Amino acid sequence: MLKLSKIFIVLFILTAPLLYGCATEDEKGQTAEQAQQHDEGENHNEGDNHDGEKGHEEEEGHNENVVMSDQELKEFKVQLKTAGPGELETHVTLAGELVIPPANLAHIRPRFSGIVKKVYKNIGDHVKKGETLAIIESNESLTDYKILSLISGTVIEMHLTQGEVVEDGSHGFTIANLKTIWAYFKVYQKDLPYVKKGSRVTIRAGRDMPEARSVIDYISPVMDEETRTANARVVIDNRNEIWKPGLFVNGEVTTSTQKVDILIPKTAIEEIDGKPVVFVKTDEGFAPRVISIGRKNTVNVEVVSGLKPGEVYVSHGGFTLKAELQKSEFGEGHGH
């Protein structure tokens, strides 16, 4: 027994280092594997952080500012406004035509046949009520009589020449007072619930024509059988005589008015990377700010987010700043 115990002790002493070495190698292997996993985890986290930063930068969009002096703003006709509340109007657009009010039109004819001895007025001349237009010698009495203007206005038609014999109503003058003019608009059935007497109207005739503002003062009580439309009449102040009878116009009839927290003109909005952007004034210049748009009409839009009350923004001429921003991306512009 004693010999067997000694043999086991000797074997244990000989094999113990080998067993310990194997265990150590296993531990080293596990430690290396854990370290590799730890490094990969850190690399993965760094990648996530990098992607997050990149996404944040992408979400922020363009961080560059466009720097322009007051002189440059004036030169490029860049206009600024302060963001704030306003009233957003919704409209119905109607087509119409300008006409002369019947009370402002006079057809003046000779009372008796005779010979035209003198003509004092021509087409385009302004006349006053009671002013002499022509003198005719009567065939019956052989005495002269005057043709007088019945209203003050402008001669728009004349069929009378000196020495001419007048025998019927085809000769004479047409006088029109163009200081006031009417616009007649066609109102379709779908628009009748929104177009009412007293509704505000903005009249436009094209890009180079000024706007006129008035109200609807009459809507016909019956529909036209052929066009199935009603007539809406608008009286236009035409003291400068810019509006001409026969001109086709569009009328934007205000159907409702809503108060919004921030209202800006459509001219303030530029598109960058497919998103609506407004240039906002900062200490460093003008920063492009992505905005969210709410309700809108043909002129103004509601800003839901991206612009705060009191901030100064570019209301007109933003395309100039957009061009400078795009140039700065290539190192050519004013952006910093």
Automatic annotation (TrEMBL):
GO CC term, one of those recorded: outer membrane-bounded periplasmic space
Keyword Cell division set for record: no
Domain CzcB-like barrel-sandwich hybrid, residue spans: 105-177
Keyword hit for Signal: yes
N-terminal signal peptide: 1-21
UniProt entry keywords in alphabetical sequence: Cadmium resistance, Signal, Transport, Zinc
Molecular function, one GO term: transition metal ion binding
Listed SUPFAM superfamilies: HlyD-like secretion proteins (SSF111369)
Residue span, CusB-like beta-barrel domain: 180-255
Span of domain CzcB-like C-terminal circularly permuted SH3-like: 263-322
Gene3D superfamilies: 2.40.30.170, 2.40.420.20, 2.40.50.100
One Pfam match: Beta-barrel_RND_2
Region (Disordered): 29-63
Family: Belongs to the membrane fusion protein (MFP) (TC 8.A.1) family.
Described function: CzcA and CzcB together would act in zinc efflux nearly as effectively as the complete czc efflux system (CzcABC). The CzcB protein is thought to funnel zinc cations to the CzcA transport protein.
Name this polypeptide is given: HlyD family efflux transporter periplasmic adaptor subunit
Species, as recorded: Caldithrix abyssi
